[in-house]
Write a structure and sequence with these properties.
Blueprint (H helix, E strand, L loop, with lengths): L2 H23 L14 E2 L6 E3 L2 E2 H16 L7 H21 L1 E3 L2 E4 L2 E2 L5 E2 L11 H18 L2 H19 L14 E3 L1 H20 L4 H19 L9 E3 L12 E2 L1 H17 L6 H15 L11 E2 L16 H4 L7 E2 H18 L2 H17 L13 E2 L18 H18 L7
Antiparallel strand pairs: 1-2, 3-6, 4-5, 6-7, 8-9, 10-11, 12-13
Helix pairs in contact: 1-13, 2-3, 2-4, 2-13, 3-4, 4-5, 4-6, 5-6, 6-7, 6-8, 7-8, 8-9, 8-11, 11-12, 11-13
Length: 432
Amino acid sequence: MDNIEFIKLIGFYENELKSNILYFWLKRCHDKIHGGFLNCFDNFGKNLVSYDKYTWSQGRFVWMFSKLYATPCPIFDEEERSAFYELAKQGAEFLMKHCLISPEDYRCVFLMERDGTHKRIEADMPLDMSIYADCFVILGLSKFASISKDIKAYNFAKKLYDNALVRLKNNDYHTLPYPLSKKYRAHGIPMIFSNVSCELLKTAKRLAKEDVSAIRQNLEGFASDILENFVDENYIMREVITSDNKVFPQILGQHMNPGHTLEDVWFLIDAANFTSNPSWKEIIIPVALNALERGWDTEYGGILHFCAIDGGEPIGILDGVADEPMTKQLSGWGDKLWWIHSEALYSTLLCYFISGNDEFLKWHDRIFEYTFSTFPNPDREIKEWVQILTREGKPQEKVVALPVKDPFHITRNLILILELLYKQYAPELLCK
């Protein structure tokens, strides 16, 4: 692919972001009555099926609009950027007002009513059902603090972060919608904390230099944990290992989540850059290639939701893990999900520019062809992607993780792709 083709790619991704994804969300997501965001749409985007607000999603929206405001790419005018800022600001205020268990208890509730009233998933369940919700609030408020220089938002995010680290150390936290017995460890935990630490670190460099050293040390620790314990000798990233960091023969220990791996690839590249560990990339690059090769569906195309360590349908012993919720979700191994493909589009381009390996460019082109022939909504009045497909690539109405429609991954990856391409091929156009 020559420079002209890459310039054309910039135009394509700009149009996808502005004319399709943001076209849908900017008209629908802002709750002008109570603040925060609405995103409990069906998979096709036709109907808002609930006014519930998942804290997880609220934090993601704040990050997304903060990032749209801050991107150096010359794709938005001042009026658009101002609108992004106001959306991020009101979302941050909604979270700081409503997301905590109580004013002095820095744990996030999992679910809220439209007006921010705390809501339980079921009557006997605790309010703080997922530490992932805390992480996405930290992510969003940290990014907003960075663009606004709002020290209150930064301090709120930092208190959440410090509390989450204590709970992590004490192994005292919940992980809905992916609960897991304490005798196992999920890759998703060090993965999300690596990303959160990286985002908080960037903001601390601007607003709280006294916090930088400790956050950088945390970032290095989470990334090292992944590379040393979850990546095996064959450069396969295991999704679940034992609590004492061992591989085990049951199906949970013998499967991959290709999308998680490809998302974490760029998290780890960021971590390598921010902690001055360039040698990590020698591990990350083959990990990415293995995820692509094993995760690709050779029969129908696209990237599988889950796969066996060697590719294809996950296999392994069920004894002792049959009742684990994470085992049960493997039944959807052949589903094709929006977020996996958007993450793969960015990671393949990033790995290509880092390594110079043309295989990544070939993978990008293959994933690009599949993605944009299957996910974009055929209803051109809606335009946003149909996010969940069957293995064969047909739309299906199904809940994955949360009962929401989620713009976070697509928007984030499109912005990051554009920033990467502008930096490579039109750096003189980037806003300073």
